[in-house]
Amino acid sequence: MPVKILMVCLGNICRSPLAEGLLASKLPKDQFLVDSAGTGNWHVGSCPDERSIEVARRNGLDISHQRGRQFKTSDFDNFDYIYVMDASNLRNVQNMARNEQERDKVKLILDELFPGENMDVPDPYFGLHDGFNSVYRMLDEATGNIADKLKANHP
C-alpha cells in the first residue's frame, strides 16, 4: 500500500497543485501517492490556474490533468501526511481534525525549509506572474526535503 501525501491550499488551483506535481515527480509512483485539495470550494472540478500550469510546464512538469477538490474530514483517514501552504490553511484543516493524531498529521510545508518559523507560502492568485515563479522555487525546495525524508522513512 503506497504512502499517501496530501497538499492543501485555499482554492486548490495555485499552490497545492504545484506542490502535488513537484512532490510526485520526486518520488517513486509505486510507493507514494500524492494528491492536493483546497480548504475552500470555489474551484471544485477546475483545472489549476493557467499561471501555475505555465510555470510547471516551463520546469518540465505537467499539472494540467489535476482537478480542484475540497478538503474533507475523510482525508485524515486516507492520507499519512498533510502539508498546508499557510497558517490559515493550518487552522482550517486542524479545526476539522477529530483527534490529536489527526491534528499531528498536518504540517506547514515551509517548516521543511525553515523549521519552527511558521512561514507561509504566499498565495500568488491575485498577484503578477513573478509570484508564481517565486512560489514554484519555494515549493521545489520544500518538496525536495520532504521527498528525501519520505524515501528515508519508507524505503
UniProtKB/TrEMBL annotation:
The answer on whether this UniProt entry bears the keyword Hydrolase reads: yes
Instruction: Note the SMART domains from the entry.
Output: LMWPc
Q: Known EC number(s)?
A: 3.1.3.48
Positions annotated as active site in the UniProt record: 9, 15, 123
Q: Which Pfam families match?
A: LMWPc
* Family designation: Belongs to the low molecular weight phosphotyrosine protein phosphatase family.
Which superkingdom does the taxonomy of this entry point to? Answer: Bacteria
- List UniProt keywords, sorted A-Z: Hydrolase, Protein phosphatase
Organism ancestry:
Bacteria, Pseudomonadati, Bacteroidota, Flavobacteriia, Flavobacteriales
Protein name listed in UniProt: protein-tyrosine-phosphatase
**What positions does the domain Phosphotyrosine protein phosphatase I occupy?**
3-149
The record's Gene3D superfamilies line, in alphabetical order, gives: 3.40.50.2300
The Swiss-Prot or TrEMBL record annotates one GO molecular function as: protein tyrosine phosphatase activity
Q: Which organism is it from?
A: Flavobacterium agri
